[in-house]
Amino acid sequence: MKLTNKITIIALAAIAAGSFLALAQTPANNNIVDEIVWVVGDEAVFRSDIEEELQQLRAEGSALPPNPYCVIPEQLAVQKLYLHQAKMDTIEAPEGQLNNQVERRLDYMEAGLGSREKVEQYFHKSYAALRNQLREVMRTQYIIGQVQENLTKDVKATPSLVKKYFAAMPEDSIPYVPLQVETQIIMVYPQVPQSEIDAIKDRLRDISERVNNGESEFATQAIMYSEDGSAMQGGELGYHGRADWVPEFSNVAFQLSDPKKVSRIVETEYGYHIIQLIDKRGEQVNVRHILLRPHVSSADLEKARLNLDSLRNEIVKGKFTFDEAARYASHDKDTRNNRGVMMNQKTGSSRFEMQDLPPEVATVVEKMQPGDISQAFVMKDPKRNQDVVAVVRLTSRTPGHRANLAEDYNQIKEMYLAARKQEVIDEWVEQKIKNTYTRIEESWGNCDFRYKGWKK
Predict the structure, then answer these.
(1) 384-388 LR contacts (CB < 8 Å, sep 24+)
(2) Looking at the domain 180-191+296-402, which fold is it?
(3) CB 360 within 8 A of CB 366
């Protein structure tokens, strides 16, 4: 940050990470006598920056570093090295992506606190000011990430390097891998009666007519009737690009031009929507929507469960494989196109720890052995938040164990890559320190810093 800029990026990063309640509860200490304690190039670290960061850590209940008046200034100084490099590399954050992230974070705040006005009251600042601060935080995070990615883009992991890394790992550093399972699933959506679909469309048409005639506000109707998580925000979704939504929704949302009119009814995998334009900004739009989902009766769920149980019996008899049944019978497009294999969104692999599975699946799988196929059961589709029926096949069960190359190569490979990338970054930082003017006030320099060469 420049000498004239007193905003503490690290403190604000607590907002971007979701710890915005702690931020609001810890106003800056106006009694601090400010001073420049570090200089890095043509930028400074102020005492107030460090004190504000300490206040945030205490408010969040985070453990303080062993020597915070050494650790925190160095972290701020390293950040300035990254930003200086970004200027030389002409790295800039894409405004559209930043706007999208900022609006999502603001939406999250509104959902947590109840309204835009309550957000402003909680943070003691206007919505516009908070938006600008968030944008700068996320801009800095993006730029630093890009610098680090450029520095480590050539780091590769070969089997020999991974094996060498693992062999040198101290015994007490080898991670414990909890029980993991691999599963396949066939998911079937119960048939929705046409009368239910017609009733939903009639309700949406009635809402549209009242809004278009000026009898009611779209946001009010969304709060009262929408079944989407955005209901409490009046259905507002924030600024998004076309690729952020399913095509059926995006195609209609991006065609809207009159904020006073309501779209036609849009059917997606999530249900039925009507949409109202709020604003357009470049390649992004901000819209409100109302979502109504068809509700399936217990009788329809039971009928679907019995039908799927019949399919399961055919698989057990060997008339066709689970893979084949998943390809032709499953309604979930993601697993259907992958032989029914469930993918862990956290890791990108097919392995799950039990707590990462949908709870209904975990309950069923816990009692199964590899190769077993469950009876059909009812579960909540985590993507659509609707009741569906499913059968699962347990492909593998790996008991908890100390990591080894035979069973956990990919995990060890990721550990190697992370360690090697950190080495590259550390080497770059130390070289950057050598080539950058730095000055530390005498009373702040009696530290065992992580990086060498700060004190010239």
Answers:
(1) 384/269, 384/270, 384/271, 384/293, 385/270, 385/293, 386/189, 386/293, 386/296, 387/190, 387/296, 387/301, 388/187, 388/188, 388/189, 388/190, 388/304, 388/331
(2) Chitinase A; domain 3 (3.10.50)
(3) no
pLDDT tens track, the chain, 456 positions: 333 333 333 333 333 333 333 343 333 444 446 899 999 998 999 998 888 778 667 755 678 888 999 999 999 999 999 999 998 889 988 877 787 778 777 877 777 777 888 888 877 778 888 888 788 878 988 999 999 999 999 999 999 999 999 999 999 999 999 999 999 999 999 988 899 999 999 999 999 999 999 999 999 999 999 998 888 888 988 888 888 899 999 999 999 999 999 999 999 988 999 999 999 988 889 999 999 998 888 999 999 999 999 999 999 999 999 999 999 999 998 899 899 999 998 888 899 999 999 999 999 999 999 999 999 999 998 887 789 999 999 999 999 999 999 989 988 999 999 999 999 999 999 999 999 999 999 999 999 999 999 987
Give how far Cα 149 sits from Cα of 101, 203, 267, Å. Answer: 20, 50, 40
Question: What is the identity of the amino acid at 345?
Answer: Q
Closest CA to 144 of 224, 191, 79: 79
Q: What is 9-154+422-444's CATH topology?
A: Triger factor/SurA peptide-binding fold (1.10.4030)
Residue with tokens 């090295």: 81
Q: Using an 8 Å Cβ cutoff, are 187 and 307 in contact?
A: no
Fold matches, 9-154+422-444 and 194-292:
no
Contact 183, 365 (CB under 8 A): yes
**Token output for 216:** 């009611």
Q: What is the DSSP string of 109-121?
A: HHHHHSSHHHHHH
Tokens of 237: 């979704």
- Alpha-carbon span 53 to 64, nearest angstrom: 10
Q: Please name which of 181, 276, 268 lies closest in space to residue 219, comparing C-alpha atoms.
A: 276
Alpha-carbon torsion 380, 385, 387, 390, what sign?
A: negative
Residue 46: phi, psi to the nearest 5?
A: -95, 155
Instruction: Output DSSP code: residue 175.
Output: P
Q: For residue 72, what are its two tokens?
A: 């925190």
* Long-range contacts from 371-379, C-beta under 8 angstroms, 24+ separation: 373/312, 373/315, 373/316, 373/322, 374/312, 375/309, 375/312, 376/305, 376/306, 376/308, 376/309, 376/312, 377/305, 378/301, 378/305
CATH of domain 194-292: 3.10.50.40
What is the distance between the alpha carbons of residues 272 and 381, in angstroms, rounded to a whole number?
17
What are the sequence ranges of the domains in the chain? 9-154+422-444, 180-191+296-402, 194-292
